[in-house]
Amino acid sequence: MFRVRRIAAALFVTLAIAPVAEAWGPLGHSVVAELAQRHLSPEATAEMEHLLALDHTTSLADIASWPDEIRNDPNQQALWKETRPLHYIDFRDPSCVYVPPRDCKDGKCVVEALPHYVAILSDRSQPDAARLQALKFVVHFVGDIHQPLHGNFQNDAGANNYQVQFQGQGTNLHRVWDSGLLGTRNMDWKAYANMLDAEGFEPLPQPIAPLDNPYAQWAEESCQITRTIYPDGHKIDQAYIDANLPIADNRLREAGRRLAEVLNIALQNG
């Protein structure tokens, strides 16, 4: 527990002053993972590569969508059922203020899942296989918590039940934010990451008083964004894309920067 609190405290101090470098679909998760990997310390990179070697890769992007992919793996159905509620948080009040007993019953939400898996990842006494699995969840959940509709307060299953017209077809708003909006750039994940990385760093949002939990802050930020992203007339037109794609881009950048800081702390020695 001390280790978890130390990581959270270190994150809060570091990220309060650090500049910025689906949830999302595979594209968004790969972008977040790639941005983070580019800003890892040498020590964190070495430990990351040690763990990823178990999956015969050196790229965080290769494992970023694994927590979603297990839903289609017959051998992973128990794990999928156990972790499915951990990809999001449903705020129960439009204030977007995180109240754990109300918004995260029994710790089953992304805000509480992140410190749980960060603690496993940080613990060198854990088997490498357990730490690799934790790494996969941490990479994915940091992406998830920055997708605004994974922190919604509306009673519509994260806008999965909010139908819209997008590019001439019926879909739901959640899917638009998971992948459709990012897909309008017509880029693969590496080119997308290159574009965002080339824009340089911007200041991260300031800490929300009186929060001392960075993960809760990230969820509250997402919740606040959802106030403005429901389209008039249930139609996603070019004006909507022009207004909201920069918001999505910025959440990817924030997620990448914050994931790098999480991993730099969790993967350090000792």
TrEMBL record:
GO biological process, alphabetically ordered: DNA catabolic process
Keyword annotations: Disulfide bond, Endonuclease, Glycoprotein, Hydrolase, Metal-binding, Nuclease, Signal
Transmembrane feature ranges: none
GO molecular function, one term: metal ion binding
Tree of life domain: Bacteria
Signal peptide annotation: 1-23
Pfam families to which the protein is assigned, alphabetical: S1-P1_nuclease
Protein name: S1/P1 Nuclease
